[in-house]
Amino acid sequence: MNKEKLLKLYNSDLKELLHISSQFMSSDIELCSLVNARNGKCSQDCKYCAQSAHYRTDIEDYPLIKKQEVIKAAKEAKSHGVIRFAVVTSGKSPNEENFDKILEFIDELNKIQGIRSCASIGILTDEQAKLLARHGLKRFHHNINTAESYYKDICTTHSWQDRYNTCKLVKKYGMELCCGVILGMGETIEQRVEMALELAEIQPDSIPINILMPIKKTPFENFIDKIDEKNILRTLAVFKIANPKSVLRFCGGRLRLSEENQELALNTCVEGILTGNYLTTTGKTPEEDVKTVEKLKKNLVII
Fold it and tell me: What is the mean pLDDT of residues 97-112?
């Protein structure tokens, strides 16, 4: 699928576009969850992010939490039908002390039957990726966030290529890759299509879809109207068409869609849900998501 064809699809009749994307869907819905294990004081200047030290947002900063808190959160998530659980930390990359503790977290998560360990801890070195794989990490999450052609408008303290390199390291060492985007940051339609094709080249197992929830005191605090519901649905559809083997996953900002359109997406292009609260924004409870899965007569994936 080339850019010209994907753009033509993007601009086609929405009902027909969603029908095409639905041909690549399974009847399964997979739930995942996370624990925000380190919050704030990030050195990077990503314009959307409340955790950046460059902006004076009203979030609580805290250091890496204790192992017991991670395991408690994972077991609670499992009780709600979650099969993937991620340790998420702020910052460009983990320091040596925190990284050693995160490896301990992964070891403990792997002992919980029915849970697959995940981590989202920033840009990795080759050695860090190797150690994560040795400790049995099942899946690593690292978004490209936006198209390469737009990345300098989003962040200046690291590059799109830095993120891409980490994705390559994850695959090099045999871990599954979760790699997605944030929509509604001022990107053009063409750049949304570029994202779909860049992800097709990366070939992630899972593509988390975030929709910008503008946060006060960040540079993007007034970006609420940069994408509407129809364009969100169009983007989801072309992402699925370009990445038929990847699981598209609702993540932060999905409440920008009406309940009707969330369900429409789950029937036509989205096969995963990050349930519960996210990092600095709220989502739906696992109970609400399970009810939606049952309403749509989908199969909840279990291990």
Answer: 97
Strand segments (E) across the chain: 28-38, 84-89, 116-120, 139-141, 176-178, 181-183, 206-211, 247-250, 272-274, 299-300
42 three-state secondary structure: strand
Tokens of 185: 């940051």
What does the block give as tokens for 169?
């390291």
* Whether this model's pTM surpasses 0.85: yes
Asked if the model's pLDDT at residue 277 lies above 70, the reply is: no
Domain count, the chain: 1
> Can you tell me whether residue 54 is helix, strand or coil?
coil
- Classify strands 176-178 and 84-89 as parallel, antiparallel or unpaired: unpaired
Q: Are 253 and 261 in contact (CB under 8 A)?
A: no
Would you call 153 exposed, middle or buried from its count of C-beta atoms within 10 A (0-12, 13-18, 19+)? middle
Q: Which amino acid is at 240?
A: K
The identity of residue 147, as a single letter, is A
Residue ranges making up the domain that contains 222: 3-300
CATH code at position 25: 3.20.20.70
Q: Which of 142, 149, 157 has its CA nearest to residue 185?
A: 149
DSSP 109-154: HTTSTT-EEEEE-SS--HHHHHHHHHTT--EEE---BS-GGGGGGT
